[in-house]
Amino acid sequence: MARRKRPNPFLAIAQTYLHQHMPEMVGAQLQLRMLDGPPGSPRYAVTAEQCMNTCPYGVPVALAAVGKCTMICCPLRRTVRLLLDRRGTVMHATRSDIHWN
Fold first, then answer.
1. The CATH number of the domain covering residues in 9-96
2. In terms of C-beta distances under 8 Å and separation of at least 24 residues, what long-range contacts does 6-13 make, across chains too?
């Protein structure tokens, strides 16, 4: 029997941060990436993006919801990027309208 998949604790921390500080981004799908750098620098980046209306460029909503939008910068998109240290503390939060890679 396969083991149950345990949710990543950093995603739970990011979700809690969004609930407290950015309630408009609560329903957005979160993507976690590991970063490398010198000691004391952020270790993880959590990104979330959400489109506010139907796309004027013709990108389907399902593609935009998973971060596959072809437009780099769009005024209808709301994105947030959280930088976390190795303990899960949010070091920096950036709001914008660009697609984070």
1. 3.30.505
2. 8/32, 9/88, 10/44, 10/46, 10/84, 10/88, 11/46, 13/84, 13/88, 13/90
